[in-house]
Write a structure and sequence with these properties.
The structure holds 2 protein chains of 2 kinds.
Chain A lengths: L1 H19 L3 H18 L1 H5 L32 H37 L1 H16 L2 H11 L4 H11 L2 H15 L2 H8 L4 H37 L10 H10 L8 H29 L8
Helix pairs in contact in A: 2-4, 2-12, 4-5, 4-7, 4-8, 4-10, 4-12, 5-8, 6-7, 7-10, 8-10, 10-11, 10-12, 11-12
Chain B lengths: L20 H26 L7 H5 L7 H10 L6 H13 L13 H36 L4 H15 L2 H15 L19 H39 L2 H8 L4 H30 L2 H6 L5 H10 L3 H29 L6
Classes of the chains: A mainly alpha, B mainly alpha.
């Protein structure tokens, strides 16, 4: 029984990959992500853990790019290329965790509302609609303002404000799955609510959740950068948005220090674009009618 | 409650509701009222979870006696029980009184009213421009989908969409205001006017100041309209009625303009309204970067203190704008699409 399930699952993953491979934009996105993830994981080996140290900075303040510092130095004399690499860890970690939190909340509410229906679904969907109407960036900013400054605050603020789209999609998919005859069969054989939700509904909404997560990550990374730029990020770690804020505050704009300003923004854009391309490719594989990837 | 929140258009099952327009109208109005009340509740309690004493934060760094603190507390109504503070807050908010700003020592409502026109001007122009650009490019790319132009436009739009708006703004300032290499500084680095001009010169001066912020907003914003328009037109393009129109012998651009585009516009209309709702909130970063004297810049100033009554008031205004725009989209939609709301 289990081996049969696994054979089927392996086959469907292989089928998915065969179709995904045909989307060129999706492959570029995936390739970029693998490279960036490897660089972020290897950051301690490549640049060492003391790049963030303000007191043991190797260079002088605001040096232009040179052999020793390929991207120049910041106002403390720290190497910007090292900081950029180190910042990838923070930005990716926050983006991934916030998206995971947001999709988890959305999936939970979507499945419960789709499965139980009735007054619970009515209330849950009203709350979802309300959150959907709220300007999510403003809500995230307000949450980050009233809580203490830390990475977890940022993750929480993004996660709490961005789940409604997932909840709506998952609820619709849950209702579609539960109208199929095999659910009735499972119920007739004595399957309870939990069995139906975890064994039948959840595996069927997983592909949708996957594509939603990928799309969600790019938004989360952009929101993190925005919050850090507004000074609402964790002051103890260096993220790409935080680097941009530092650059602006040290007057990189008026003195034309483009080498301080350009790289973090490009890094944010590349990662966000890569996740968007992957998400759109996954979406178009799963739902060819959308025509998004064509 | 508003159901047209999702940009991809509402998930509605036509024919499940049998009420006529007045009943639909009443339902939507009631939903919007509940949403607005929920915003007031949220804004009140959200700002009460902050640990610490707002009066202490307000007088931070200034020598204040206990008697003065008590006076301030009474002045801001902080000595009353929580439920009474809440009812007072709601009653006042309904009359437009959003409290006093700690930072400016002025009524929040007045500050917002002062800054509102600048924001409406900047983002209004930007939303009109990027909606038009997005609709035009979305129609073109979908009609010739799969071609070189389609891939190019979709790629450029997705890339610009991934760019943080504040970063793009800063780069534009460096290149076009400060000047890089041979490029001279052509546009002002920020603000809304140079001062001293009147009449036509004043209008031109403001327009000159608006170029870079509007450019930033349009670049970052048009992708969404483009993608929604493109997806919705692609959806229509399989329709049998287009084959009929072609079989009648209509020219290709007539089939597009008269038959396909009007149907594909429906989901996009909702989205344009939602973008109008973002008018205030969407410009926080761009206004900050370009020191535009609008609500977004005011929000940033309030955040850095933090000036809680001002943050709270702006939150209510931003959220309220979204709710009102959603309501308008909901009310307009049945008039455009007779299948909805009957």
């Amino acid at each position: 029984m289990t081996s049969l399930t696994w054979t089927r699952r392996r086959a469907s993953v292989a089928r998915f990959w065969r179709r995904y491979r045909r989307r060129r934009a999706g492959l570029y996105g995936l390739g970029a992500l693998v490279l960036i993830a490897l660089a972020a994981l290897a950051a301690p080996l490549l640049v060492g853990g003391d790049v963030q140290s303000v007191t043991h900075a190797p260079g002088t303040a605001l040096e232009p790019p040179s052999r020793e510092f390929p991207l120049g130095t910041d106002q403390f004399g720290r190497s910007l290329s090292g900081l950029l690499l180190w910042g990838a860890r923070v930005s990716l970690a926050v983006g991934l965790l916030a998206a995971a939190l947001s999709v988890a909340i959305g999936t939970l509410i979507g499945v419960l509302a789709g499965h139980y229906g009735g007054w619970f679904a009515t209330v849950a969907m009203r709350v979802t609609d309300w959150f959907l109407v709220m300007p999510s960036l403003v809500l995230a900013i307000v949450l980050a303002t009233v809580m203490s400054r830390s990475m977890w605050t940022v993750i929480l603020a993004i996660g709490i404000t961005s789940w409604p789209t997932t909840a709506r999609l998952v609820r619709a998919q849950t209702i579609a799955v539960e109208s199929r005859p095999y659910i009735e069969r499972a119920k007739a054989l004595g399957g309870g609510h939990r069995h139906v939700m975890t064994r039948h509904v959840l595996p069927n909404v997983m592909p949708l959740v996957l594509s939603q997560t990928t799309l969600c990550i790019s938004t989360a990374i952009l929101t993190e950068a925005t919050l850090a730029f507004l000074g609402l990020g964790d002051p103890t770690v260096v993220s790409w948005g935080g680097m941009l804020q530092d650059a602006r505050e040290t007057g990189a704009v008026s003195s034309g220090h483009w080498w301080y300003l350009a790289p973090p923004g490009i890094a944010i854009a590349v990662v966000a674009l890569a996740f968007t391309l992957c998400g759109r490719a996954v979406e178009s594989v799963l739902n060819p009618r959308l025509g998004a990837g064509r | 409650m508003t159901t047209v929140g999702s940009p991809a258009g509402a998930v509605r099952r036509p024919g499940t509701t049998t009420s006529a327009y007045p009943r639909y109208l009443a339902g939507r109005l009631g939903g919007a009222a509940v949403s607005l009340f929920a915003v007031l509740v949220t804004s009140f309690f959200l700002f009460r979870i902050i640990p610490g004493d707002p009066v202490k934060a307000m007088t931070h760094g200034m020598p204040t006696s206990a008697a003065q603190m008590a006076t301030l507390r009474r002045q801001f109504g902080l000595d009353l029980p929580l439920w009474q503070q809440f009812t007072d807050y709601c009653a006042k908010a309904l009359t437009g009184d959003l409290g006093m700003s700690y930072q400016f020592r002025a009524p929040v409502g007045e500050l917002i009213a002062q800054k509102l026109p600048a924001t409406l001007l900047l983002t209004g122009v930007a939303v009109v421009l990027y909606s038009a650009l997005g609709l035009w490019l979305g129609t073109r790319t979908a009609w010739r989908h799969g071609g070189l132009g389609d891939r190019l436009h979709t790629g450029v739009a997705l890339t610009l969409w991934s760019v943080p708006s504040f970063w793009l703004g800063l780069l534009l300032i460096i290149v076009f205001s400060v000047g890089v290499g041979p490029v001279p500084g052509m546009f002002p680095t920020g603000g809304m006017e140079s001062g001293g001009d009147t009449g036509l010169a004043y209008v031109l001066d403001v327009a000159h100041h608006m170029v870079l912020p509007v450019l930033t907003l349009v670049a970052v914003g048009y992708a969404q309209t483009l993608l929604v328009m493109r997806a919705s037109l692609l959806d229509e393009m399989g329709g049998d009625y287009l084959t009929t129109a072609r079989a009648k012998g209509l020219r290709d651009d007539l089939v597009r303009r008269r038959h396909a585009v009007p149907n594909a516009l429906l989901p996009t209309v909702t989205m344009i309204f939602i973008n109008l709702g973002h008018v205030a909130a969407g410009s926080i970063l761009v206004e900050t970067v370009f020191s535009w004297p609008g609500l977004g810049g005011l929000f940033y100033q309030a955040l850095s203190v933090p000036d809680l009554p001002l943050v709270q008031g702006l939150f209510v205004v931003f959220a309220g704008a979204m709710i009102v725009m959603n309501l308008l989209a909901d009310l307009l939609y049945p008039l455009l699409d007779p299948r909805v709301g009957r």
